[in-house]
Design brief:
The protein is built from 6 helices and 6 strands, in the order ααααββαββββα. The protein is of the alpha+beta class and 169 residues long.
Length: 169
């Protein structure tokens, strides 16, 4: 088992103590659930997710695509300017194009991963700079990768603060 600290993750100036304790507790509970119920890391799925994170900043869609299921989709929150369900690699390419048009800097910093039989949960500190505003934020998020066999069928990101993202776009 490992421990994740919200204040270490976000920086002491970034959030108040109450929110830090809530995030710490949530992270602990989620990680404990994955490890207790699924017996630890499913290394093949973690390797696939890592390969996808390496491919994305390079816009290496060929490598990314070889790990996706034929019914692959990314489901983004309705409260974001890039909201919606993006199906297949064509939809994913549209999503990436939208995101790179909005942000001049898009830097995921993976803090932790936990895996189960068909799920990988990734805790990320996402550094974003709005292309038009020039403002930079760090937003914690969790991305849930759902697998069918050895292929990613769906990615569902959960953002801590969509208002902060919208404010810099």
């Amino acid at each position: 088992m490992f421990h994740i600290s919200a204040t270490a993750f976000l920086g002491a100036d970034c959030i108040d103590a109450t929110r830090a304790r809530i995030i710490d507790r949530l992270a602990h509970v989620l990680c404990a659930f994955f490890f207790d119920h699924f017996g630890g890391t499913v290394s093949n799925h973690i390797d696939i997710v890592n390969a996808m994170y390496v491919a994305l900043p390079k816009q290496d869609f060929e490598t990314f695509a070889k790990h996706t299921h034929p019914d692959f989709a990314v489901v983004e929150a309705d409260s974001l300017p890039f909201a919606g369900t993006f199906s297949g690699m064509e939809g994913f390419t549209q999503l990436v194009t939208k995101v790179f048009e909005m942000f001049s800097e898009f830097e995921p910093n993976v803090k932790a991963m936990a895996a189960g039989d068909d799920t990988v949960m990734v805790w990320i500190d996402m550094k974003l700079t709005g292309r038009e505003s020039g403002k930079t934020i760090n937003v914690p998020m969790i991305e849930v990768f759902s697998f069918e066999g050895d292929k990613v069928k769906q990615i569902t990101p959960f953002y801590y603060d969509t208002d902060a993202i919208n404010a810099i776009v």
